[in-house]
Amino acid sequence: MQLGTHFVGLFVTMQYQIVKHLCRFRIFVISSFMAMFVYVLLYHYVLHTTGYETYFTANDRLQKSIKNYTINAEWHINAVPMFSDVMARKLEQNMHSQFSTGYKLRLGSRKSINCDQTTFTVLGEKAIHFGEFFSIVIKARDKNGQTLERGGDFWFATISNSKLATRSAGKVIDYKNGTYEVIFLASFTGNVTVDIVLVAQTEAIAWLRQVFWPAEQKLKWVGYFSGQTNYNSKKKTKKKSKVETSFCYLQGGLQWNDKCEFRHATALGSVVFACGRPATFECDSLIAIKIEPHHASQMTKRMIAGKEYMFNSSYRSLSNGPTTVRIIDRELPISTVDKVLSPDFFQLSVCLPDQLEPLTEGYWVGNKWINLRCKTKEWRIEEIKHCIRKKKFYLMGDSTTRQWLEVLTKYLGYKADKNYKYTKIVANHNNTLNALFQFYPFIVTNRKISIDDVKFESDLLQSLPENGCDYIIVISPWAHYTQWKQSDYRRRLEQLRNAILRFRGKCPNTPIIIKGSHARHYRSSLRSIYSSDYTLFMIGKTMENVFKGIGVYFMDVWDMNLAYSFFRKIHMPTEAVMLLHWRDRPTFFDTPARAPKMVDEKSHLKSSRHCKQLANEDCFTILDSASTTQLLKIKFPYTNDCLCAILC
To answer: Does residue 285 form part of some domain?
Structure first.
């Protein structure tokens, strides 16, 4: 290599000495170009003869492999690539490749997306190899087959292998030009089913984001006012005073007169819960509230009138593409034995606050969730008891949070609290499990809720003494907020963030877990609008954004719930709730996996004692965890490996 370099340098020096003595400038320029041309030829000749060309070509392939986030048997990375990094790079590449100038003139019309015409293909012509990331490209088209040159559609995307009982969800990149890329991890081999579902088209998403979500008064409660019990000293009888009612709303930006205002600056900020003034009672006589069940449906009908067509394509699966793909093992390409990626394939970091979103969250193997956001382990019952001994659990949220405590109590072998309430559970078992579940106010339920039975997180955090600070805090403010005004909900989260920061001042080392949102199942088309999955998805992203940078653990469960082989609903089965497995039970990697028994939705509802309630689109109480567990006949309540990894 050095000899070749010296030879080229000597040639350039001689050429310079020759042209220096030429008189005319034209001859000098022509000679210089000739010299550079000969230099390039000699340089490539030297590289080829010395073998360095092979080195540079292999290195370029490696760099390209890194840029394309490919993981194979020969080259591993320390962690799963971050979704934000991959998306930013792909958007930048797409921007440069799509750049053009001038007008495009053609005869056409703008139509909505059509699922029958929309196509999807596997990106690239090479085979899909086990352990690599691969992409499905969606081309949105209208009913005439024309490519739509805009983005904004909302998708669900999963892959599954029924033989192995494996499923995982993909990450979607919107290129804003009618093209979408869904990235999957090939975590299992064999014939894999691809399921691409259009949840809502861009026109519906724009309406939800710009019209429905910012609207005021989408929720209406009935407020119950009552005075003190009157005692007649002559007749020695007690007479309860009558109960008066009025309608109540959350007021953020509207004006009002003569309303009973209920303010809570540290929980709601400038948002006010305002009720009509009762006929005879004072405002401080409010004792309970109950949701007005038909208001959300009626308001949605009025707002969507004339625009129902925007939701005609909702929850439609695409069929114009490879609904089945083959994933092969690079080392054993002709093997007929399918296998699943080992959890040890990636070198994951420990679970920490503010971890970035990975390119894949994980995958299901039977009823076992393989988490790839951070490193977890499997826990025995005695290990869990030792971990939480002398600690105090405080779970603040909705009924999906209440399930955590119910399942954990049962798994540890303890009986449920005898003084069980819908809004509050106290658990105290042998100084091992000391826990309190507390519902937040303004619940969206057709139950009458006493205002004394609910409490804001800021009040509960403020009431905890700083002596010891042996607390574990779980907060989940999402399931009852789909009909809140967007700005009001954000104010609610910002005040909760401030409360957490104040609590950090007295207990800086207490672990605080924020549980994110997930998709759900709908019994009516109206409910899928006013409690849409898109809104739930954006609620999760808003939570992650607001609580970023304050040292809390954000548990993003969206992909885990989406990938689970069960029809989606607000109360998921036990294993989906608790990220479930236990150590003493044989795992998939020890014995062949069994596919989880699929529950038919109709038979499931017929056998449920909540069938009558579920048939009513205005019913806000969906299957509780007790009935769900009984219906599925789950014999082994599992435990939460991710939560234990955070706490211990």
So the answer is: yes
Q: Do 502 and 461 form a contact (C-beta atoms < 8 A)? A: yes
DSSP output for 270-307: T-EEEEEPPSSS-GGGEEEEEE-TTHHHHHHHHHHTT-
* Cα–Cα dist 508/381, whole Å: 28
Is 8 a member of any domain?
yes
Q: How far apart are the first and last CA of the chain?
A: 57
Q: How confident is the model at residue 333 (pLDDT cuts 50, 70, 90)?
A: confident
Does residue 161 fall inside a structural domain?
no
Residue that is written with structure tokens 């001038």 in the block = 102
Same domain, 486 and 363: yes
In this structure, what CATH number is given to the domain that contains residue 399? 3.40.50
Residue 540: give the domain boundaries: 349-647
The b/e string for 345-364 (b: 16+ C-beta within 10 A; e otherwise) is: bbebeebebeeebbbbbbbb
Counting the structural domains of the chain, the total is 3
- CA dist 227 and 463 (Å) reads 29
Q: How far apart are CA 577 and CA 570, in angstroms?
A: 10
8 Å CB contact between 477 and 399? no
How far is 375 from 380, CA to CA, in rounded Å?
Answer: 17
User: Under DSSP, is residue 604 helix (H, G, I), strand (E, B) or coil?
Assistant: helix
pLDDT in tens, 149-172: 899 999 999 999 999 999 999 999
Rounded distance between C-alpha atoms, residue 534 and residue 180, angstroms: 17
Sign of the torsion formed by the C-alpha atoms of 573, 576, 582 and 585 = positive
- Whether residue 568 is found in the same domain as residue 487: yes
Domain contains 535: yes
Asked whether 358 and 83 are in contact (CB, 8 A), the reply is yes
SS3 632: helix
Tell me the pLDDT tens digit for each residue of 309-323: 999 889 999 999 999
Same domain, 268 and 367: no
- Per the listing, tokens 């899909």 go with 128
Q: How many helices (H) and strands (E) does the chain have?
A: 19, 26
Res 50 pLDDT > 50 = no
Q: Mapping DSSP to helix (H, G, I), strand (E, B) and coil, where does residue 314 land?
A: coil
Sheet containing 179-185: order of strands: 119-122, 133-139, 179-185, 171-174
Residues in Cβ contact with 296 at an 8 Å cutoff, skipping those fewer than 6 apart? 218, 219, 483, 526, 530, 618
How many residues are given for the chain?
648
The last residue of one of the domains, among 291, 312, 341, is 291
Q: Are residues 570 and 641 in the same domain?
A: yes
DSSP letter at 453? S
